[in-house]
Amino acid sequence: MLSFTPVIAAAIPTWSIVTIIILVILIAAFIALAIAGSKMQKKQQEAEANMMVGAQTVSMLIIDKKKMKLADAGFPDIVLQQTPWYLKRSKVPVVKAKVGPQVHSMMCDAKIFDSIPVKKEVKAVINGIYIISVKGLRGPLEAPEEKQGFFKKLLKKAQKKVDEGNKALAAEKAKNSKKSK
Questions:
Q1: Structure pTM?
Q2: Which among 59, 129, 58 is positioned nearest to 95, based on CA atoms?
Q3: Rounded to a whole number, what is the distance in angstroms from the first to the last CA of the chain?
Q4: Which of 3, 16, 116, 152 would suit a FRET pair with 140, their CA atoms being 20 to 30 Å apart?
Q5: Is the Cβ–Cβ distance between 137 and 122 less than 8 Å?
Q6: pLDDT of 144-180, one tens digit each?
Q7: Which DSSP category does 88 fall into?
Q8: 132 three-class SS
């Protein structure tokens, strides 16, 4: 009669088993995030396509722009009622603009918020109270300055100090060479 003896995993150390399990879990989480991300990207593309269907091009004078809470922005009550609860406290880019004779508070796309000029007239593509894109009415819009990070600012300051030091050395060498002649 044959007897079956189970193979004991004593040959594999415990730490390697734990490492393998953690790697499998991380790979599964990465795959799940990739699938969820692609689904969300498809939804966003469909929503953008739907917004472009009903879009209108309007000439408007931008009065003010700022990021503020949805409740403080002065939008109609229906907008606040249709907003999900988790987005009601978040800050959104709001533009106050004069469209024709009326002044409206409008929400804009976060991508174009920095490129919207204040106190200037623009031609905007809007859908309801949402500004999708902006073009300059009289010439191109000025490109906003890119924000510098902490390390870029630090590097710029250091480079400025080095340049000042080099100028001082050059001036001192020129002074010493005149004295020696």
A1: 0.61
A2: 129
A3: 111
A4: 152
A5: yes
A6: 667 778 888 889 999 999 998 888 888 888 888 777 6
A7: T
A8: strand
